[in-house]
Amino acid sequence: MRAGELKMKLKLPIILLVLMGLHVPDTVIAACTVSTTPVTFGSYNVFSTGPLDATGTVTVNCNEAPPPTVTISIGQSTNSGGFDPRAMKLAAGSELLSYNLYTDSNRTYIWGDGSGNTSTVRKKVFKSTPMATTVYGRVPPIQNVSAGSYNEVLTVTIVW
Fold this sequence. Notes:
The protein is mainly β. It has a single domain (35-159), classed as Fimbrial-type adhesion domain (Immunoglobulin-like, Sandwich), CATH 2.60.40.1090. Helices cover 0% and strands 44% of the residues. It has a seven-stranded antiparallel beta sheet with strand order 1-4-5-10-8-7-11, with no helix packed on it. It has a three-stranded antiparallel beta sheet with strand order 9-6-12, with no helix packed on it.
């Protein structure tokens, strides 16, 4: 598996059947796909003493039976080089705004790849029934940054 692949395929052998002239191929491609809706924080107030929270989603859809258990991981920040903290970069500059993504609504467990102090999400994904999982984001308060648009693109990986 290559990191960053959004669609993964696995060949599964099956028994060749001939039924009323219908030929079933000797392999079937099983696949799971992943899609996301972004965590959009909106306007950040550098003077606010409270964090800025937002949510997004990771949705996994599989065409396999029986339902696979899928592990969802979210990669490191390319701007900070790690998981804690992640950092968004100012679009028109080099300033960084710290943030993180979590697996829980209390924003306790950092969503990562399972290494260090990070967590992943494991869920069964039933055939043709998309499984949406909420991503909880938080920007800590009182960061001295310039006004502007900050963003970061992360890699979401699924393994089943």
